[in-house]
Amino acid sequence: MSRSRRQLTRRELLAGACLLSASCTEHSAGDPEYDLLLLGGHLIDPKNGLSAVRDVAVRDGKVEAVADRISPSQAFKVVECGGLYVTPGLLDLHVHVFAGTNEPGSYAGDNSVYPDGYTFRSGVTTVVDAGCAGWRNFEAFRETVIDRARTRVLALANIVGHGMRGGEIEQDLDDMQAAPTAELARRHGDLIVGIKTAHYAGPEWEPIEEAVRAGDAAGIPVMVDFGSNLPERPIETLLGEKLRPGDIYTHCFSGNRRELLPDGTPNPGLFAGRERGVYFDVGHGGGSFKWSVASACLEAGFPPDSISTDLHIGSMNAGMQSQTTTMSKFLALGESLEDVIEQSTWNPAREILREELGHLSVGAAADIAVLSLESGDFGYVDSFGARHRGGERLVCEMTFKDGLLAWDLNGRTREDWRELPHDYGRQGEPRWDGILNRRR
Ligand SMILES: [Zn+2]
User: Fold this and answer.
1) How many A from CA of 279 to the centre of ligand 1?
2) pLDDT by residue (tens digit) across 135-149?
3) Which residues have CB under 8 Å from 417's CB, separation 6+?
4) How far apart are CA 295 and CA 338, in angstroms?
5) Separation of 136 CA from ligand 1 center, angstroms?
6) How is the chain split into domains, by residue range?
7) What is the pTM of this model?
8) What is the β-pairing status of strands 248-249 and 222-224?
9) Would you say residue 44 has pLDDT above 50?
10) How far is the CA of 283 from the centre of ligand 1 (A)?
11) pLDDT tens string 242-254
């Protein structure tokens, strides 16, 4: 967009906003440099090696400045963030959001959730759908969910042509075809960031090998849900031979696939896989996170590369709950706040080769989470129903997507109603408010 056109648009927006709100009259004399200023928060931006108090300024949906001190007079809207943590918008690498097909018992149906209902309230601005659709139904997924969501939805294409529709559909080796899957991934290269293979219950390696063939053809990584644990295809072979560097092993602390040896220590195959460059993703879900496995792995120096939820209707109402709850579990296991932020922002962005995401560098999309870290006596439940107590809980206070407010737990961006005229109208302005004044 040309500079002159952008300035015209900004003036128009400002003029329009002032018709709606008395609160902007103090700004109307000039055209403030920034649309939004997050003031005095503790910025954790692992890609840029930052964990310190910084002000963050936003303009036209992008990060415009990050500095020790930015004058509030330069900003149209100032939000006090003292005592809070400002982080890149969280990137959840494993979710299921192909809702709305009316298919019961299916991740391409009733098991999925629409993304916007669950993302912003936990600081998530980007999700990666983990294989709900394959080459036969991806276009319907894109049209009915992805293109309509405010959340940035990326996707892994299932190697199964019909996608994650359960039962025999996901066991049909004949429907696992690299060529059309890779072709789909190339055609939707703006959205498809990898190939998924999942839930296979047979002894063959074919699903893994076909997914890797598709990944090779499309130049993208493969994410594996290793399905049933079978002696014919041990985890050591998967991680040591079958996967490529850059592929992703999800459900890494599941307790379902011999992640621990009989003596309770981590399987050396995990370390061998990491040595080769395989990434390890949490993918908590409804059946894939066990305290004893995660704890033993962390104690042995094996943290996850990425923390993800495996969001679906089951997991969100069980122990998983949300991205911030899943992150809090790793705080409870002794990880630092900086580590859990890195594992929920920059690391997953790198895993899917989308390095424009997961950080707040100047020029990056202004996808921002503002988090509080509460102290207390909290309890966290794994997929097996076991509890672990923790003294901290991450809570999402505010979320901004492309510079626009998308969630505000305590109304921190809002005026006290007593400060407004008795006949006050709709608040917020389209320069920063994506809730009351959506641009689309
Ligand atoms: Zn999943």
Assistant:
1) 16
2) 999 999 999 999 999
3) 424
4) 18
5) 19
6) 90-361
7) 0.92
8) parallel
9) yes
10) 7
11) 999 999 999 999 9
